């Protein structure tokens, strides 16, 4: 996280965000409105409208902050020490073994309860 002071958003930024959202919603409506057209053309149009909407949204203070957050997140992902294949496989095997162990224990507990209920309910038992 950065310690930069965030500048205040202006009414123009709010208008830009509203326009971006409205444009995107209009693109979605148009996608379904022109259902007689090829899906390829409708998808290309929707992608183009989405790109323009994202461009408008990124020109706002919040959009620039979101872009900065995404960049910092990618940098942080590069710093993470990811487990090796062997560590991943060993951890997966431990998880599978524990799941099986708990499943067997629950099955045995269920059998015990079944035996108890049957002995109480069984006539002459």
UniProtKB/TrEMBL annotation:
One of its GO terms (cellular component) is plasma membrane. NCBIfam families: secE_bact. The keyword Transmembrane applies. PROSITE patterns: SECE_SEC61G. The chain crosses the membrane at residues 12-34, 40-61, 94-115. Its main location: membrane. The gene is secE. Pfam families: SecE (PF00584). Keywords: Cell membrane, Membrane, Protein transport, Translocation, Transmembrane, Transmembrane helix, Transport. InterPro entries: SecE_bac (IPR005807), SecE_sf (IPR038379), Translocase_SecE/Sec61-g (IPR001901). This is Protein translocase subunit SecE. GO terms for molecular function: protein transmembrane transporter activity. It is found in: Membrane. GO terms for biological process: intracellular protein transport; protein secretion; protein targeting; protein transport by the Sec complex.
